[in-house]
Specification:
about 850 residues, alpha/beta, 8-stranded mixed beta sheet
């Protein structure tokens, strides 16, 4: 009865953990009105490296008294040109100007502005711009949403006119430049948008002069600002590729000496360009538009250094790191994919020759040294991604040659990690390296997430603030290696316990990983948590044996669906401003705008699939597994038969990685990151299992199922020398040389057993588990569940009745089921068996 309801109980437990992790959210208070007027001043191209007390004294003083941060200027077009930045500012969502663009760079910033009455202005191109964003772009932005949310607005300069124009093209108040006394103009409406100019080019002297001119204009604005006003200064766009992080400063009541942040970034010191529109409305106490902005209102948080120079160094350094990350990341993953391809080709001949033959003929055994080196290379490749993550603890991007410096640091960390795995106790066991690598990977990624994921922000294997997709929590690569490491370490622990405890262990370890991934305080990835829930459910239901049947897969799908529904219900009960991505998507489906999200997700999946080097990692790993490891000579099926908990962990990893990538718009990136860890470890474990395929397994005296021992694994003391041998029944290929299995000694009497009848049928063990198929290509019972808790089973498993596979070779008549009064038979001559013990078991 318990066996039948176990999947349901496990599903309920995983669902409860998942919903608990996703439902808990940091407290968010509703933004309060803090100003009577808001002035948005934009300087296209302004970066923190352009700000200092000499060139920009006004901005320096404003930053000293106010709150500062790094601004990601993502728009619907990359790079964000000045006209795109102004349009995105006014739309509160990712927008782009229509028209032709040069292949590299931005089009001229000429915008037609008509002034028929001398008070306001009209933009004749606004209608076509609105249609372009509504019909041809996937974000569904509405240009002019910010101005539509207030009674009247002021624009100074052509860029500001683009941001302040209403959807039909009207600008309420317009001036092409600041008047001699801007007080009247800036005080005529609650919202003013001012274009202070552009800082562009790469020449430091030229940029310094442009920044000085913009600072002088800012001084005039601050001198004429209305009372009780909030002034936001932002570097609203790039001026040429590549994208960079820009300046954002807020000065006004309640914005003193802090870091700027918002719910859209979730990290102190970071804002998005789309956050400025809701920030202005929240400060004025105005309601948000019916179609919500993509951004969230900014707030000021503490923790900023008292010295402004030290405070500014942080966002300036983040800009340098993000720029270096963009150049290094693609090369790193391309190189990693190439190394994996070469290692996959090199491992094929080792797999073909890994299984030794017990007879006098057969292929020459592979040198133990060669296999030991191959194993270390597999460990090193599996540790490359966590080593690259850890490398960001060293400021390599500040060097003259950041790419080479990053490669050197990563190489040293890989070497150190490989050495640590090599000399860890238990390395000689079959699953020793797998457990050590999975544990080390989970530890590195998990600690980073628990400490704020600072290594993943702008990291080579993390996410870039320049992309504007994620600023906190787990990255796509981090999700892949964390779920793979967590499930593998769960399978490693589960395999060491009695089969009855294995599902509970998988749920415990996997459930903890679900909490880490899905919690908004930690991983902040609800989609990843839902996908991992399905993977944990799959791993739990097959960890004790048996195949991934349709019913078991249905339980896993139900668990993921239940977590998603539970979180959606909780999320939809929140206010519109506090909803997460899932709640906002369901709300969009309700009002008929969910098609934009579906279209964006499908487009992102396709672009990632075609352009990402991680796709190569996923495909190479899949080809190696399918055409090599899963073949009869590949060893993976044998590994799965002996260690079903490892099979369960790998199956759960595939399910979680595929779902997480597709649902999160990352295509095969999550699977590729997981494959970078799982495939090398699967190849290493397969080599070791094949290396002991012909080893003898001696039965343990006095051990049977009646004693409560899980003997569905090896059932013996280990191959050739047993558990006390030099490798304790495991270790690298070539560490133990198998011997031919001999028959009974000369002169020993044997008896021919009579046909089996109900009266003499052996009853020393229950029948084999009905969940598993009969035997695999290696002669192993596929549902063999590995060694007992106190023995390492690297040799062939026992038969279903708990006896050693070669026990009948030396057993007497009674052991064969013959009755005491059976007719004597002629003694059989001794024979030399030229097959392995596994072959004897299969026959």
């Amino acid at each position: 009865m318990l066996r039948r309801i176990a999947p349901a109980l496990l599903t309920v437990l995983v669902v409860a953990l998942g919903v608990t992790a996703l439902a808990a959210r940091p407290p968010q208070s509703a933004p309060q009105r803090s100003a009577d007027f808001v002035v948005l001043a934009g300087i296209a191209g302004l970066r923190w490296e352009d700000v200092d007390p000499q060139r920009t004294p006004t901005l320096w003083r404003m930053a000293q008294d106010g709150s500062i941060g790094s601004l990601s200027v993502r728009s619907a077009h990359r790079p964000t040109c000045p006209v795109d930045g102004w349009l995105t500012l006014g739309a509160g969502s990712f927008a782009a100007w229509n028209g032709s663009r040069p292949p590299e760079g931005c089009p001229p910033a000429g915008v037609a502005v008509e002034q028929p009455d001398g008070i306001g202005a009209n933009l004749p191109d606004q209608e076509s711009v609105v249609q372009h964003n509504q019909q041809r772009l996937s974000w569904g932005a509405m240009p002019g949403s910010l101005s539509e949310s207030v009674r009247c607005s002021v624009a100074v300069g052509p860029g500001a006119a683009v941001a302040a124009a209403r959807p039909f093209g009207r600008v309420d108040r317009y001036a092409s430049a600041l008047p001699a006394d801007p007080r009247v103009l800036l005080g005529s409406c609650v919202l003013s948008i001012v274009d202070l100019g552009t800082v562009e080019g790469t020449d430091p002297a030229s940029r310094a002069g442009q920044a000085r001119a913009a600072d002088a204009q800012l001084a005039r604005v601050l001198a004429a600002r209305p009372p009780r006003s909030l002034v936001l200064v932002a570097g609203i766009s790039d001026t040429a590729p590549p994208s960079r992080l820009h300046v954002v400063v807020a000065d006004g009541p309640g914005w003193e000496r802090g870091w700027l942040t918002s719910a859209s970034t979730g990290r102190d010191g970071y804002l998005q360009l789309v956050d400025l529109a809701p920030t202005a409305l929240a400060a004025l106490g105005r309601p948000m538009p019916e179609r919500l902005f993509l951004g969230r209102p900014a707030v000021s948080t503490g923790g900023r250094p008292a010295d402004l120079a030290d405070a500014i160094s942080a966002p300036a350094d983040a800009d340098r790191e993000a720029a270096a990350q963009r150049n290094v990341s693609g090369r790193f993953f391309t190189l990693l994919a190439g190394v994996q391809v070469l290692l996959a080709l090199a491992i094929l001949p080792l797999l073909r020759r890994a299984r030794p033959h017990a007879g006098p003929t057969g292929p020459t055994a592979v040198s133990g040294r060669i296999v030991a080196v191959a194993e270390l290379l597999l460990v090193a490749v599996a540790l490359t991604v966590p080593a690259a993550l850890l490398a960001d603890a060293v400021p390599w991007w500040r060097g003259e040659h950041p790419g080479w410096l990053f490669g050197g640091i990563t190489g040293l960390l890989v070497a150190a990690g490989t050495a640590a795995v090599r000399f860890v106790p238990g390395y000689a066991r079959t699953l020793g390296p797998l457990g050590a690598v999975a544990g080390l990977t989970t530890l590195v990624v998990g600690l980073d997430v628990l400490t704020g994921a600072s290594l993943q922000l702008n990291g080579v294997v993390g996410y870039s603030a320049l992309q504007g997709g994620r600023y906190a929590g787990l990255s796509t690569v981090g999700l892949g290696v964390l779920l793979a490491g967590a499930l593998l370490i769960g399978g490693w622990f589960a395999q060491r316990l009695h089969r009855g405890w294995r599902p509970a262990v998988m749920v415990a370890v996997g459930g903890l990983a679900v909490v880490v991934v899905g919690s908004p305080y930690l991983g902040a990835d609800p989609v990843g948590a839902i996908a991992l829930t399905a993977g944990v459910s799959v791993a739990a239901v097959i960890s004790a044996g048996g195949w991934l049947t349709v019913s078991r897969l249905a339980w896993a799908a139900m668990a993921a669906l239940a977590v998603g529904i539970g979180f959606a219900v909780v999320d939809l009960r929140r206010s519109a401003a506090e909803r997460g991505s899932l709640g906002r998507f369901l709300s969009a489906l309700g009002d008929g705008t969910g098609g934009f999200t579906v279209h964006r997700s499908s487009t992102e999946n396709f672009e990632t699939l075609v352009n990402s080097p991680l796709t190569v990692l996923a495909l190479v790993g899949g080809l190696l597994v399918w055409f090599a490891l899963l073949q009869p000579w590949g060893g993976l099926m044998r590994l799965f038969g002996i260690y079903p908990a490892i099979r369960a962990a790998m199956a759960g990893t595939v399910v979680a990685a595929v779902l997480g990538g597709v649902l999160d718009g990352a295509a095969l990136d999550v699977l590729g990151a997981a494959a970078a860890l799982v495939v090398p470890m699967a190849a290493l474990a397969s080599l070791r299992v094949l290396g002991h395929a012909a080893d003898r397994t001696r039965p343990l005296p006095g051990r049977s199922r009646a004693d409560g021992v899980d003997d569905s694994g090896s059932g013996g003391v280990g191959p050739v020398g047993g558990d006390d041998g030099p490798t304790r029944g495991g270790g690298p290929l070539g560490a133990v040389h198998p011997r031919p299995i001999s028959g009974p000694p000369a002169g020993a009497s044997t008896a021919v057993a009579p046909p089996e009848t109900p009266a003499n049928r052996s009853t020393d063990g229950p029948p084999a588990d009905a969940d598993g198929p009969p035997a695999d290509a290696d002669g192993l019972p596929v549902d063999a569940d590995g060694p007992p808790a106190d023995a390492d089973a690297d040799g062939p498993p026992a038969e279903a009745d708990g006896r050693s596979a070669d026990a009948d070779e030396t057993a007497g008549p009674a052991a064969r089921g013959a009755t005491p009064d059976a007719a004597p038979t002629a003694p059989a001559p001794p024979r030399q068996v030229d097959r392995s013990s596994t072959g004897v078991a299969a026959s």
